[in-house]
Amino acid sequence: MIFLCFLSTSSFETGSKMIQTIDRKPTLNTQNFYKYLPALSSFTEIIEPSNYFTVPDDWNIIITDVVNSTEAIRNGHYKDVNIAGGITAMAVSNFMGDMDYPFLFGGDGMTLLLPDSVLFAVKDILFSIRESVKSNFGLKLRAGIVNVGELKKSGKELKLCKLRISEFYNQAILTGNALDMAENLVKNDDSTNPYIIPLTHKAKIKPDFTGFTCRWQDIPSHRGETVSFIIKMNSSGVASDQELLKIVLDQVGVLLGNDAEIHPLKEEKIKVDLSGKYFRKEATIHSGSRKGIFHFLRMLKIKIEGIMLNLAINTQWKFGPKVNGMELRELRKSQVLASDFRKYDGTLKMVVACDSDSRKSFLEFLDDLYKQGKLFYGYHISDRALMTCALHEGSAREVHFVDSADGGYALAAIQLKGQIKASKN
């Protein structure tokens, strides 16, 4: 996904298209464009075109994604991939001083929308994250930026709305064809690609990962399966895509279940990881190393906090520290309420709990629409969910990124791309 800004005039060719980058100055009255948008209260409201607002020209699509994530999955490192994909949101939130800006987690990467005025810092943050992911997890993170105004000049469109998930978390909902083009621009691995942060970049601002946590065991499905779906509409335009999206969402309710039934997280199934399997990874992110005194001290701190949390949950202990104003014994409630198990960015992405019969029925429904040429889809079946958490201490906002274990969205995306490729042959 992407992350890079160009303040000098240059161009980059992609197929028959030519994107011309131009000098830009921040427009102060658009800097808080997203912050003051009204928030929708129901996911079903995203199908109404009038709820969307055009993203300003001086905003940018920032994309990160793990290169060759399937190899890491085969080697049993999908949690590392999830972490590499998710930590950008935490670092940017700490720089911004809030988490109320557009970002979406994709399993092996992140898409963010940010104004020109903060790109000087975001480039530094992403450069440092890319280096950290490489040294600590052995993963290559692609990172770049594409300006929204430039995409509009190429005939692309990008709109968004804001959805209130809980008092702790607002989710951005995106629509339009600009994201696909931005992703293609960033994922071109030509060494001269101007949309990628160069290896020679000199970062002055270091990322702050305060609030990033990774302390829960994998969460077993309460219905037998945890499935990641990616569904991309293939109709004649945004309006017809949203009409088709309504049909799909209706069938989610009919075939898979209501929101409570399909939610992949159940409070009673969320358990603290005291084995060190995952919180070692948290210690690595915060200490910047997989060993040494700082890593050891961070591990010790996390272990003590984990024991306290586990004690509070098991005994309903009313004392001790609070997290974002919530008692430790109630912390699992916020994990469920502020999770991102369902989202829309031009594709419907969702991680759902289901049984095998309901999953098969839903796949038959999707396959029928696929054969009619109306949509593409991919899915990955597991028996448990992964959760990676980001809590912004200054604003009490938090989000809990959810995916299915052992490949999740990353493997679902491979199937989706295969269908799209086959349709062009």
From TrEMBL:
Lineage, highest ranks first: Bacteria, Pseudomonadati, Spirochaetota, Spirochaetia, Leptospirales
InterPro entries: DUF3095
Name used for this protein in its record: PF11294 family protein
Origin species: Leptospira borgpetersenii str. Brem 328
Superkingdom of this protein's organism: Bacteria
